[in-house]
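Why this split exists: single-chain examples teach little about how molecules sit against one another. For that reason, every record in the complexes split bundles all components of an assembly together and asks for one structure covering all of them. Below is a record exactly as it appears in the raw files.
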Amino acid sequence: MKPFQYMRPTDTPAAIRVKGKEAGAYFLAGGTNLVDLMKMGVVAPEKLVDINRLPLRGIEVVGGGLRIGALATNSEVADHPYVLEHYPLLSMAINAGASPQLRNMATTGGNLLQRTRCSYFFDPTMPCNKRVPGSGCGAIDGINRMHAIFGASEKCIAVNPSDMSVALRALDAVVRVSGPAGERSIAMEDFHRLPGEQPELDNTLQKGELITAVELPAPVFTKNVHYLKIRDRTSYAFALVSVAAALDLDGSRGIRGVRLAMGGVAHKPWRLGAAEEFLKGKTVTEDNFRQAAQIAMQGAKGYSYNQFKLRMAPNAILQALKTAAAIV
Amino acid sequence: MNKSLIGDSMSRVDGRLKVTGQAKYSGEYKLPGLAYGVLVPATITKGTITAIDVKAAKRTPGVIEVITPFNFAGLPGFKPDAAQPVRGLKLFNDKSVSFNGQPIALVVAESFEKATYAASLVRATYQEEAFETDFHKNREKGVTPQGGKYKDYLRGEANAYKKAPVVVEQEYLQPSEMHNPMELHVTIASWEGEDKLTVYTKSQGVVSTQRTFSNAFGIKPENVQVNSRFVGGAFGSSLRTWPHEIAAAYAARLVRRPVKVTLTREQMFTLVGYRPFTIQKIGLGATADGKLLGITHESYSQTATYEEFTENSVNCSRFLYDAANCNTLYKVVPLHVGVPAPMRGPGEATGSFALESALDELSYALKMDPIQLRLKNYAERDPERNLPWSSKYLRECYELGAERIGWENRSPRPGSQKEGEWLVGYGIGCGAFGAYRGRALAKIKIMADGSVNIQSATSDIGPGTGTAMTLIASDLLGVPAGKITFELGNSAFPMAPTQGGSSTVSSVGSAVHDACMAIRQKFAALDGQSAEGPLDYVALLQKHSLPYLELTEESQSSEQAKNYSMYSFSAHFAKVHVHPLTGVVKVMRLVAVVDAGRIVSHKTAASQMIGGAVGGIGMVLTEEAIFDDKYGRYVNGNFADYHVPVNADIHQIEAIFIDKPDRYINPLGTKGIGEISLIGVAASVTNAIYNATGKRVRELPVTPDKLI
């Protein structure tokens, strides 16, 4: 690990000032991803701006919705009574990720900024357009078992590794950021980006911007929800495919509202809009779910080692919907 | 021995030390002046190092020395031209690179962090050459290993299976699998003067390590003291001495300070061996009622170009079942990879996966119960050596295991049973591993206060060696276990073989047995009484004004190995759940029934069985080191992406022991369980998966994508 400067500001404007001024400055929160990347030689910050003393830890009910401070840890959020009761999908998704030790350290803001787990990104001896723009993509004709089936580009087929973000995407969360130009809100839909020509950019944060909170709209999906994560081992493994499914059902099993998003399939949490459209107003049947799963797969493209995701993803959507609707 | 005195439920003698952090592992000795060495890995796969720029590294504050092939002074014991150069020396001796990750430099600094940083500044330039790491592409280049041991085997007619009424012919793939013990490999080396070396290292054999250091540095064995008192798992990865161990001693001599070299978890994937990538073809032919007419087993296994590694993957097919015709072939495929090493159940685990899978396939082809098929071909004698078994209770293993797992609930029709939304299946897989006994010595000393000290230069990589030896001595001496200390892990103690091949209780236990019996004689002789009955050691020492009595006994390998075939046997039973949509497999139950002779320490033996089963679950469901052949590098060489099983993968595991003594192998009647705890597990699970789903997976590991 390269030597670096370390500072620990206590107010948000100071932290933003330093980060905005210095090109090699990185915010440090839980450190569960950044420190790994530093040890592997993937990133080499000149300066670490430790934000753990900023007042961004609280979880509050605001105007019917929920405001989660950027420094609230994954465990704090997942175990929060209000989250468990009103946003159980978020709790399930967070608990499907990493290990208890990591969740105790990892923060909400940090989780949104998790880098991909693509092997070629993590190994500085390999080509990777995300790590070194223009160096090529090792994965596209390499071992791409873990890689994208939606929205990839010639430059990058990496996937976003977060489970939390998949639930936030399904729940239409909003990311609050503060930066040199002031505060703004970014819808989850617009927060992460597809790789396109600039895979080095994971998200739409501007220079010097700091995530201060994540806001959830008033709870709707409190009962019929499920986060299904298929992985190579039961815990502490990244998703082959994951599905966040949320249903709002009326008394006769009619689908008033539905949210579907996937992880492990794209450079960003992948919302299944067409499948949602199809299901809205229909009733809960296995056949409807099956059709929705097929609709969701339109435009999917596999690579040499991840063709299985084209079969696994619709199965996962079907199973997640069945579990959410309590069909056995 | 007197069974009544064996403490079935005795806990580990060093359990408290281990769980309270007081057990001191090899990397934890804080020697005065300790310096830290960090290895720099090659980033090409084959070629020649043309230059190494160490200027930036050497300028880093705290850096003491950087060792490279350009300033390496050589070692007296390394003779590149000799037929058998010192093993473990693919180090700075020449400028060639034979695999990606090969150490090309060692940075020695005042701290691990400084050495790590400086190592990142070392820049090598290479003349790169074309390389081969793609097994499939190079399989046909497989060669029969050197020496006679691995020559083709034939009994009766070759490929006789092809003419049988019912035929199974399939290929099975075992990917490279990493040992990944919890404890990282580490060595601390410290010199006193020019010819006296003390080493603290992770080792399964302090005596063989002593010999290797002695050879490499050209000093007398007695001038090398190797310590490895506690080992945090090894699984075969510490059976030999590796380059980093030699590097630590070389550096320590050069900088005249003790030097510690700890591998990183990533380096554990390239520098300390692995279970090699292997493809096996099995041909089985049987009559319509299930009598095997021919068994053919061919194995192609990956090895390094600079050193040949071999294992017994085809051997079990020669003797596990009674068939008049059998032929086996074993070839190794040299690739530009690091050299493999034995990994728990070496060879046999790989071989058993193939053989036991094929047998299961045959049972479905015959519409015959898999246990009935095994009974139909039960080998009453060893068909390979044409000798009687020293003991074999595999039939009893089948019976007990079938009863315990609930085999009667198994449906012969695949994919026909469900529990909730999960498909249910049952499977069996069997294993055998040679029951060995080697030469070993033990020194025993009984003190005036009645306490007993026993020393032997064996190791304990986890099975509970000290516990078993304490129980043996307690039983034979009639002394409570709490008054007995068994010391191991020091090359200064009387010689013991390396802890491997499931042979420690058989070899070292026999030496302890002999030492106990001899010292009983010695005590009895003091008063001219018989050694048969109880002895009051304290009173005898007091009466004869002796501070203690001591002696060293040597125990040899069994003469009877010529007359009997000696094996441990296991039958593993699995009950699995498979999710029809997600392809997720849960091994709900594993029952391992084992004929390993007399069991000395039931509690630690059961623990060892469970550990082996967990290793088997990793082998069958999760573990695979994946190469990108374009670069010759692993793409998942770390603990996040290489999946050892976690607690959540493990459900119910039961170990059942036949616990009947073997009359011929040793005075204790023990055979050994370390390997058979794993051999057969993989096939029991894949066979259960087939029973649950009708899908036959012949390429490990069975990840969810293979079942949807």
